[in-house]
Amino acid sequence: MVHNGIEYGDMQLIAEVYDTMKSTLGMSNLEIADVFDEWNKSELESYLIEITATILRKKDDETGCGYVIDYILDKTGMKGTGRWTIQEGAERGVAISTLAAALDARMLSGLKEEREVASKVLDEPSMQSTDKTQVVADLRAALYASKVCSYAQGLSLIKAASDEYQWDVDLSECARLWMGGCIIRAKLLGSIREAYSKNSNLSNLLVDAGFASALNERSVAWRRLIALCVTSGVTCSALCNSLSYFDTYRRARLPANLTQAQRDFFGGHTYERTDKDGRFHTAWTDAHKDIGDASQRTSGENVQI
Questions:
Q1: Is 168 inside any structural domain?
Q2: What is the CATH number of the domain that holds 28?
Q3: Helix, strand, coil tally for the chain in percent (to 5)
Q4: DSSP string spanning 10-59?
Q5: Shared domain check, 243 and 265
Q6: pLDDT at 300 over 50
Q7: In this predicted structure, what is the pLDDT of residue 206?
Q8: Which end of the chain has fewer CB atoms within 10 angstroms, the N or the C?
Q9: Do 282 and 218 belong together in one domain?
Q10: Per the domain annotation, does 242 fall within a domain?
Q11: Residues 159, 271: one domain?
Q12: Does residue 150 sit in the same domain as residue 263?
């Protein structure tokens, strides 16, 4: 199941890269195929990259002109495995935002008729001036970094379930098995296997020294590519969610303190503090204070819980 969730993420990331080359750079199917062929000889080598190049070169036999890819309706089917992965992530409390973005993209693709109507009333932004060589290089960096995040999310989900049910799953062995003929087989899995072989207790793939270095090196290109897609109106939800996952995970402090304060304000859910142990509740207004005082008189308990 998690394999298929990662597969959803991987396919959507590749689709967004293809769309950027086609919509932003105006590249032909053959030009894009050449790029994927070149990438398949690099750190991006994978089954899905390989077949993408093949797909883009396939001439259309039905019409005798053009390419099959341009005649395929832009509605993606699904059989539920991606949805189950997202549901499992929610159950385990594991963030799998790249995979969720891929599922959302499939569901939105199903709204073909609605999208056609929307396209007539919602304006496209003007295209940005671009350096083709730079954009293609940025796409390569962004795709690799995002794929790492996608695999990291799937493996984190497996780890969470393994810890909860005491399955003692060997994540390096998962990577080895996925290298053997499955849809998400990729050169990247060799590095993933090595990372978990060195440290079976790795909290997240992103903090492995090798992957951390690779992501840090690609960070500027990754951000530049997302900015181009956003300003050009080109869909990049999986690429963008991958970067958001990376940015959220790398920050020592998040604005979750404000969210927790809001929860305490309207629901008395309490919060933890940075300077002392325990759980606390604040009387945020005079009305809250009156409620708190009444509670203390009734129960004899301190409001700080």
A1: no
A2: 1.10.1040.10
A3: 65, 5, 30
A4: HHHHHHHHHHIIIIIS---HHHHHHHHHHHTTTTT-BHHHHHHHHHHHPB
A5: no
A6: no
A7: 96
A8: C
A9: no
A10: yes
A11: no
A12: no
Residue 102 included in any domain: yes
In tens, the pLDDT along 108-118 reads 999 899 999 99
What are residue 272's DSSP bridge partners?
279
Clarify whether residues 113 and 62 are in a common domain.
Answer: yes
Could you tell me the residue range of the domain that residue 277 belongs to?
A: 257-299
The pTM of the whole model exceeds 0.85: yes
Q: What 3-state DSSP class applies to 271?
A: strand
Q: Encode pLDDT of 23-34 as tens digits.
A: 999 999 999 999
How many Å apart are CA 25 and CA 228, to the nearest integer? 11
* Residue 218 shares a structural domain with residue 277: no
Give the total number of structural domains in the chain: 2
Q: Say if residue 271 is in the same domain as residue 246.
A: no
> Long-range contact list for 21-27, CB < 8 A, 24+ apart?
21/135, 21/136, 21/139, 23/232, 23/234, 24/127, 24/128, 24/130, 24/135, 24/228, 24/229, 24/232, 24/234, 25/130, 25/132, 25/135, 25/136, 27/132
* Residue 88, both tokens: 């499992």
Is residue 217 domain-shared with residue 290, that is, in the same domain? no
297 band by pLDDT with thresholds 50, 70 and 90: very low
How far CA 14 is from CA of 35, 102, 107, 220, 262, in Å, comes to 12, 11, 17, 20, 39
- pLDDT tens for 46-92 read 999 999 999 999 999 888 889 999 999 998 888 888 888 999 999 99
Continuous segment of H or E residues that includes residue 90:
helix 81-92
Retrieve residue 180's tokens. 């053997």
CATH code for the domain of 268: 1.20.5.320
pLDDT of residue 215: 96
